[in-house]
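Subject: for your reference before the review

Hello V.,

The reviewers asked for a structural picture of the protein, and I figured it would be easier to keep everything in one thread rather than splitting it across files. Below is the amino acid sequence we used in the manuscript, unchanged from the supplementary table.
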Amino acid sequence: MSHQTGIKASDELKDAFANAKNANNNYRLIKVCIDLGIEKLVPKDHCEASGTWEEDYGMILPLLGDKDPCYLFYRLDEKDAQNHYKWIFMRFSPDHAQVKHKMVYAATNTTVKTIFGTSQIKDELLATSKTEMTFDGYMRHREHEEAPAPLTASEEEQRLMREEEGPTDIGSSTKQSHLGGIAFPIRSEAKDKLLGLKNGDYTYVRLCVDTTNEEILLDDADSIGTNALPGKISSEKAGYHVFTFKHTHEGDYQESPVFIYSMPGYKCPVKARMLYTSCLGPLMGQLAEEFDIQCVKRIEINSGDVLTESFLMDEVHPVRNLHRPAFAKPKGPSGKRGQRRLLKDDDQ
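And here is what came back from the structure prediction:
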């Protein structure tokens, strides 16, 4: 709040906010920073809308610095009852920023929202990395926000009772909500190959999302080693990859199923990025429940170059810090204690 930092809006920022809300203008994004020299909020940059809000989302990353916090107001295409656009308020506070700057931006958070007008802010996002500021990062934020709250003891008991009563008939093409996402049906060809992977006939299965028919399709199935895995990752389209990682760890031979989600940045259409992100959690649930493929690790990448054997070993068997410092007994007071004193009882 303003009394916490004493930072107020500059006249330039007030004008920028007014222009952004003007129906004759076409603002999509406003970047706001704190000028610590004059202790005021100032506009740093803005961008005009050129497509839908999903298509324009890529304009955010070029405005972000590695060590510089900032505020962003991003306009949606949705309007309220008064015909005013709704906005997303974002506070970007990178991990490598100075602690003092992080604290100032956090303390001024309410001030900048109040100056803009909280009634037009539909959603808020706090991000500490550029990954969280991507479109996929925002979709994961929305998925988390919309996920149901944990069940109470009584609600959990009712759920178990419903399950014991027997399953409800559901058509094969029905889309079900699972873990806050969307569960698309898996085509029979893909199911056959997944069962083959479970039985050891294959070590690699690639799946893709049919965005038109809303199904999970088979894209590839093969028996490969780790060295051939990077070549299976497309640089043009997204994919889900189930790979049996055969290796030896601490003298024991292991075959560990690994789930890899590859998304090559903004080369994919917006709809595809949204659907792949939304189907991610439910698909992993389907693999475990329908095919008994218990993936020990989920990895998200944008390039196959990182998929080396050492990388997979670190992901599947992360190094644990076993060093536990012994408890250090606190030192007594320094200097001489002086002579002990004899205390008398009041009765003596």
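For the response letter, the relevant points are probably these. Residues 2-145 form a domain with the Severin fold (CATH 3.40.20.10). The radius of gyration is 28 Å.

Happy to draft the paragraph if you're swamped.

O.
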